[in-house]
């Protein structure tokens, strides 16, 4: 069976025998417990680094997740205040933030800036890695765009085969 433990911090690991023993505690603090498992998947979520900036003091609007709300020109609801990258909605990727920055400066300079978010690649760092670019099937369905689905078995990938041996 699988057990998901959200908002949990790993404070100790013992992988010397078969399987893994983890010492965990709630991220907000609390009692430590020991877990035993065959396999452990650790997934660290990301949140925008906006807490403590006192954005509310100047009236900058944020969403429930703390992301700064901007228009298509990266301008906030406060004149002269712009936001890009990980603090605005969208993928939290360095190369996306860089594109946001270039486009934002172009807008400020009175030029035409543009970021095509459909062309921002993403990677999942598994073994082997998996990458994607473009809209998801869910997005295409929602937008009413016709599409074809192609499937390729992961174990037919030569790198996946090499890692599996």
Automatic annotation (TrEMBL):
<keyword id="KW-0274">FAD</keyword>
<dbReference type="InterPro" id="IPR050151">
    <property type="entry name" value="Class-I_Pyr_Nuc-Dis_Oxidored"/>
</dbReference>
<keyword id="KW-0520">NAD</keyword>
<protein>
    <submittedName>
        <fullName>AT3G17240-like protein</fullName>
    </submittedName>
</protein>
<feature type="domain" description="FAD/NAD(P)-binding">
    <location>
        <begin position="3"/>
        <end position="101"/>
    </location>
</feature>
<dbReference type="InterPro" id="IPR004099">
    <property type="entry name" value="Pyr_nucl-diS_OxRdtase_dimer"/>
</dbReference>
<dbReference type="InterPro" id="IPR036188">
    <property type="entry name" value="FAD/NAD-bd_sf"/>
</dbReference>
<dbReference type="GO" id="GO:0045252">
    <property type="term" value="C:oxoglutarate dehydrogenase complex"/>
</dbReference>
<feature type="domain" description="Pyridine nucleotide-disulphide oxidoreductase dimerisation">
    <location>
        <begin position="120"/>
        <end position="162"/>
    </location>
</feature>
<dbReference type="Pfam" id="PF02852">
    <property type="entry name" value="Pyr_redox_dim"/>
</dbReference>
<dbReference type="GO" id="GO:0004148">
    <property type="term" value="F:dihydrolipoyl dehydrogenase (NADH) activity"/>
</dbReference>
<dbReference type="Pfam" id="PF07992">
    <property type="entry name" value="Pyr_redox_2"/>
</dbReference>
<keyword id="KW-0285">Flavoprotein</keyword>
<dbReference type="GO" id="GO:0050660">
    <property type="term" value="F:flavin adenine dinucleotide binding"/>
</dbReference>
<dbReference type="GO" id="GO:0005739">
    <property type="term" value="C:mitochondrion"/>
</dbReference>
<dbReference type="InterPro" id="IPR023753">
    <property type="entry name" value="FAD/NAD-binding_dom"/>
</dbReference>
<dbReference type="GO" id="GO:0006103">
    <property type="term" value="P:2-oxoglutarate metabolic process"/>
</dbReference>
<dbReference type="InterPro" id="IPR016156">
    <property type="entry name" value="FAD/NAD-linked_Rdtase_dimer_sf"/>
</dbReference>
């Amino acid at each position: 069976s699988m057990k998901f433990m959200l908002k949990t911090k790993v404070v100790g690991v013992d992988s010397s025998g078969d399987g893994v023993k983890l010492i965990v505690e709630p991220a907000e603090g609390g009692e430590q417990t020991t877990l035993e498992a065959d396999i452990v998947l650790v997934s660290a979520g990301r949140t925008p680094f906006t807490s403590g900036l006192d954005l509310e003091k100047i009236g900058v609007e944020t969403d429930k997740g703390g992301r700064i709300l901007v228009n298509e020109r990266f301008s906030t609801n406060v004149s002269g205040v712009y936001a890009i990258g990980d603090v605005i909605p969208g993928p939290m990727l360095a190369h996306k933030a860089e594109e946001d920055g270039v486009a934002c400066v172009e807008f400020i300079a009175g030029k035409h800036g543009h970021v095509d978010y459909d062309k921002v690649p993403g990677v999942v760092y598994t073994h082997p890695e998996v990458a994607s670019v473009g809209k998801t099937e869910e997005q295409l369905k929602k937008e009413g765009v016709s599409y074809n689905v192609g499937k390729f078995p992961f174990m037919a990938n030569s790198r996946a085969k090499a890692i599996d041996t």
